[in-house]
Write a structure and sequence with these properties.
Shape: globular
Structural class: alpha/beta
Number of strands: 25
Number of domains: 2
Largest sheet: 7 strands, mixed
Distance between the termini: 63 Å
CATH architecture of the largest domain: 3-Layer(aba) Sandwich
Low-confidence stretches: none
CATH class of the largest domain: Alpha Beta
CATH topology of the largest domain: Aldehyde Dehydrogenase, Chain A, domain 1
Number of helices: 15
Strand content: 15-25%
Helix content: 40-55%
Strand order of the largest sheet: 15-18-19-14-13-21-22
Radius of gyration: 23 Å
Length: about 475
């Protein structure tokens, strides 16, 4: 059965269908999903526009109930939805279930935020006048999400959009429609009025472009590649709409001489290779001071050799497959580039065969890299990392900040002095001390600096900055 698009409260077939393939077993078709046309996208936008007046003025208890019901169903079905996620994206089953639980937590948090909508009442500088400052929804929000977190990222965009009274046109990545379809189905059955949430699956060049071209989309939140993010920005400026971009990263993980070696290795392995390295917060630059360098590299090599790369659903698997053939080719191209540039491929980097046909790659670790090599400058988005040797903390910090990106930055150290200085001086939106660069909480701000992000932060109470607009009202007594 082909899973359809949701437009104006109805499941619509679209202009064709595409197959969702399991990267752990390319003979396994996860499902078939309807491909929306540009006309379908325009119909979804019109439906969202028509639904906005009523939904923007809906009661807070109605919104709370829908989001809370959604949170409860996602949590109750965490094993089923986590398995679906792992089948279509390739991350391990434990990661898939964990991401599903996180989606439930996000909806639960914003269900609570519906009941905490607040403003300010201030005295005017003029006598006998009162001032009220309130937040109102921005209108129709276009949501474009990537393939690497197919349920968590849609959750942290859809939940606040609905919480604050916006209507939504949602386009998920074509590689992973299953998780997105499931979350929309849950919200639809939770009681959303027709037109409030619309799902249009398909190609970004068709569906996404129709969203960018429409003057009736009042805000767009996008997570994906830097190149596409720039196109979103240019199109949004044309229509004077709000836009929020989460794009690439080239996140550093610094290891100092005084680090606990086991803590440093575990954090580096998690940062670089878990979720197959397919996280914008992953660390593919491991910056190590010379006093611990050789011991760290040897320990990393032993840890990499012990990593189990296999079918995402198989018990004991620690690293699943790369998401598809195109991404696998990109990863192997960068491994070749690293060798050509003079870095030493110390461990891994081999294509692997398993019981089922899939896109399996042994995690790769380069040594003798410099921060000017392409493998140190460009986002690879796979299980490929490079170790850069530096003299001391000062050089480590300088190298860590020498990047056009600024999403996440980490350090392994037992020095309070260095940890404190790094937290203050790392040029990133998020800083981790003795923790992986990837892995963030659902109730606090997420976002970066420089080329990684544009606009206000996602998640937590900071989400209100994007999904609402501020109104100041004056009343004469």
């Amino acid at each position: 059965m082909v899973q359809k698009n949701l437009i104006d409260g109805e499941w619509i077939a679209g202009s064709g269908a595409f197959r969702n393939i399991n990267p752990s077993d390319t003979d396994d078709v996860v499902g078939e999903y309807a491909r929306a046309s540009a006309d379908d996208a325009r119909a979804a936008i019109a439906a969202a526009k028509a639904a906005f007046p009523a939904w923007s003025r809906s009661g807070i208890l109605e919104r709370h109930a829908i989001l809370r019901k959604t949170a409860d169903e996602i949590l109750a079905r965490k094993d089923e939805l986590g398995k679906l996620l792992s089948r279509e994206e390739g991350k391990t089953l434990i990661e898939g279930i964990g991401e599903t639980v996180r989606a439930s937590q996000i909806f639960d948090f914003f269900a609570g935020e519906c009941l905490r909508l607040a403003g300010e009442v201030l005295p005017s500088a003029r006598p006998n006048i009162g001032v009220e400052i309130t937040r109102e929804p921005v209108g129709v929000v276009g949501i474009i999400t990537p393939w690497n977190f197919p349920i968590a990222i849609p959750a942290w965009k859809i939940a606040p959009a609905l919480c604050y009274g916006n209507t939504v046109v949602f386009k998920p990545a074509e590689l992973v429609p299953g998780s997105s379809w499931a979350i929309v189905d849950i919200l639809h059955r939770a009681g959303l009025p027709k037109g409030v949430l619309n799902l249009v699956m398909g190609k970004g060049s068709v569906v996404g472009q129709a969203m960018l071209d429409s003057p009736d989309v009042h805000a767009i939140t996008f997570t994906g590649s830097t190149g596409t993010g720039k196109r979103v920005a240019l199109a949004s400026v044309e229509h004077n709409r709000k836009y929020q971009l989460e794009m690439g990263g080239k996140n550093p993980f610094v290891v100092l001489d005084d680090a606990d070696l086991s803590v440093a290795v575990e954090a580096a392995v998690n940062s670089a290779f878990f979720s197959t390295g397919q996280r914008c917060t992953a660390s593919s630059r491991i910056i190590v001071t010379e006093g611990i360098h050789d011991r760290f590299v040897a320990a990393m090599g032993e840890r990499i050799k012990g990593l189990v790369v296999d079918d995402a659903l198989k018990a004991g698997t620690q690293i699943g497959p790369v998401v598809d053939e195109s991404q696998l080719n990109q990863d192997t191209d960068y491994i070749a580039i690293g060798r050509q540039e003079g870095a030493k491929l110390a461990f891994g980097g081999e294509l692997l065969k398993r019981d089922t046909p899939g896109f399996y790659l042994q995690p790769a670790l380069f040594t003798e890299a410099t921060n000017q090599m392409r493998i140190s400058r460009e986002e690879i988005f796979g299980p490929v990392a490079a170790v850069i040797r530096v003299r001391d903390y000062d050089e480590a910090l300088s190298v860590a900040n020498d990047t056009p990106f600024g999403l996440s930055s980490g350090i392994a150290t037992t020095s309070l002095k260095h940890a404190t200085h790094f937290k203050r001086n790392a040029e990133a939106g998020m800083v981790m001390v003795n923790l992986p660069t990837a892995g963030v909480d659902f109730h606090v701000p997420f976002g970066g600096r420089k080329g990684s992000s544009h606009g206000s932060r996602e998640q937590g109470r900071y989400a209100a900055e994007f999904y609402t607009t501020v109104k100041t009202a004056y009343t004469s007594a």
